Amino acid sequence: MSVEDFIKQAMSSWMNEEGPDSDIVLSSRVRLARNFRDYKFPAILAHEEAQEIIGLIKARLENEDAPEVGGLELLNMNTLQPLEKRVLVEKHAISPHLAEESPYGACLLSTDEKVSIMINEEDHIRIQCLLSGLQLPEALQMANRMDDWIEKRVDYAFDEDCGYLTSCPTNVGTGLRASVMMHLPGLVLTHQMNRIIPAINQLGLVVRGIYGEGSEALGNIFQVSNQITLGKPEEDIVEDLTSVVQQIIAQERSAREALVKTSNIQLEDRVYRSFGILTNARTIETKEAAKCLSDLRLGIDLGYIKNVSKNILSELIIFTQPGFLQQYAGGALRPYERDVRRATLIRERLNLDINEK
């Protein structure tokens, strides 16, 4: 399979769309945690009870058309190969927890992969909506429509005083986790991120790596999300997060302008060195690839590089992860083989743009 065909088949549709402020905000995500009344929470579910939850959801949701996205496909985690689950994690369609620690988990996934309903993860269901760029209110509206659609068909565990009941106390209330994925090379290169992260934490938000808690900020990509879910309306949580994100966007743009004014030649040299590595390397590790892709995307945004798609970072930061590389290769690869395959995929992908233009 050619790299062009592979990427077309593997690409989630939301990744191809260019949302507001997409030069800095790669994606917006809203996730709602919900549990069913009269059922134990997933942490103490027996096998038969977990299967009953899946059966309940399958019977009431799978063959129905969901709002905006239509049909949903049920994927049982215990019938997927480890590589298939890893690819779903790398595409942000499911969580690492569902893939690795939920033996009776499942997922209802929309065709465009904007909507994912994770089943028997930490809660009975987790409704996730993903959109490109800064679109948190729109993602919340989509998640709420999905939530209303499901609630007409099942009974939620809800308390008048506490709100939605969840396995983890930090999710009680709205059950809402809203997050944005941001590319922040300017703030990293000007050494401002170490100052900004504690300030964000003081506002009740948290900054994590590309795959959430415990993950690295590969390619200068950071995930900013809310921590508070209790005692605050969903709209206020999203509005507050959006406001902070807009401030970070402004600071990132200022940092980029300062770099161009004070270190233009050094910055241009950094961009073109990374471009040279990506277009010529025969072997490249994950961290180096992420760093070079971040430099390349910054060079595109600043106008240094004119013949490469802006989506290159969003695409290749995912497609050069171990799961995707092995899917592209058609089987398991040793670490060195993955480094060779990664370099080949990047060169081929960049050549598609360069030769086209």
Automatic annotation (TrEMBL):
Appears to be allosterically activated by the binding of pArg-containing polypeptides to the pArg-binding pocket localized in the C-terminal domain of McsB. Gene3D superfamilies: Glutamine synthetase/guanido kinase, catalytic domain. GO terms for molecular function: ATP binding; creatine kinase activity; protein arginine kinase activity. Its EC number is 2.7.14.1. Catalyzes the specific phosphorylation of arginine residues in a large number of proteins. Is part of the bacterial stress response system. Protein arginine phosphorylation has a physiologically important role and is involved in the regulation of many critical cellular processes, such as protein homeostasis, motility, competence, and stringent and stress responses, by regulating gene expression and protein activity. The lineage of its organism: Bacteria, Bacillati, Bacillota, Bacilli, Bacillales. Signal peptide: none annotated. This is Protein-arginine kinase. InterPro entries: Arg_Kinase, ATP-guanido_PTrfase, ATP-guanido_PTrfase_AS, ATP-guanido_PTrfase_cat, Gln_synth/guanido_kin_cat_dom. The gene is mcsB. It comes from the Bacteria. Belongs to the ATP:guanido phosphotransferase family. A motif (RDXXRA motif of the pArg binding pocket involved in allosteric regulation) lies at residues 338-343. It comes from Peribacillus saganii. Pfam families: ATP-gua_Ptrans. It catalyses: L-arginyl-[protein] + ATP = N(omega)-phospho-L-arginyl-[protein] + ADP + H(+). Keywords: Allosteric enzyme, ATP-binding, Kinase, Nucleotide-binding, Transferase.
